[in-house]
Amino acid sequence: MKRIFVVLLMVVLMTSLLSGCSNQNSNEAAGTEQTNKEGNQQETQEVNQQGNESKKAAIVLGVGGLGDQSYNDLAYQGMKDAESQLGISFDYAEPKAMAEFEVHLREMASEGQYVVIVCVGFEQVDALSIVADEFPDQKFAILDGSVDKPNVASFLSKEEEGSFLIGALAGLMKLEPENYGLSDEQILGFVGALDVPVIRKFHAGFMAGAKYVNPDIQVLDDIVGGFSDVTTAKEIALTMNSKGADIIYHAAGGSGMGVFQAAAENDFIAMGVNSNQNYIDPEHIVASMLKRIDVAAFTVVKEASEGTLQTGGITELGLKDEGIGYTIEGTNIKVSSSTIEKVEELKQKVIDGELLPPLAVESVETFLSENKAE
Length: 374
Known about the structure:
The chain is of the alpha/beta class. The protein folds into two domains: 54-157, Response regulator (Rossmann fold), CATH 3.40.50; 159-290 and 336-370, Rossmann fold, CATH 3.40.50. The chain is built from twelve helices and twelve strands. Mean pLDDT is 87; it is low at 1-50.
């Protein structure tokens, strides 16, 4: 009996021992599986977060920088939109002189962390041409300029189309001077930043639009010499006004603030450019030509982050693409419905290809002789 009891006791002890080891191994395995599961989830979250954070872009603004309430501010807004909507961070540089473009571009490209580096303005063409060769694996984009390099995407705007509509609006207003407190003199003004092809497109479109609807109109023009010279732009506008121009359109970036100051001081009408500048002085700014650089900047960053940005070519944005337009929103100057209807008719003709506004002042007369207003 004693022997049987001892044997049974040993069996019970062995069974308990084996059961305990089995439970311990099961618990350890379960614990390991849970740890691995939590670890994998955490790793996945970190990878996803790191993926968003690693999408980084850069932009080199034009001379004059932020606060111009025009071209630079618009491009910067496009980057901010990409940041908020796409989760992409960005760095930016505000050069004080053209000589700084190459320095900023080289510094950014050497970091090798940007999906794309965006250049704002035709003034950066030369600098970008040099730096793009030095960093063939870095993707660049230039807004308002063209660089023929395999790693550069170039975006141009059809400024002549939007300026054509702004010119037509001004020309039609001068046909009803009593409705806007204007003089009977058929004189308009155009103030440009620099004597370069892109500014000439603004000038040519404005003149063609004004003369298309009002053949007797005269357009005075002058050049500021830069995009951030408010004082000179104001002096030019005041001089034009003294010669009879009581509607003046500018394509001068930050310098255009001088035109608005002159309009307020001498109580004449001004026209803005690039962004909607009507809100700056609703009593004196009747309309603005829209150049959707914000949309272009956003699109560039989006495509670059997705790996679909096409470099080595040129994209042109116009009225048909809604990359160019005009607006009277925000002005307190009452424009007649008949005038707006006429401008909208001309807009559709440009979109349909019936009217092709000229790219240079020298071509305006030819355009007018080939296209008679109905």
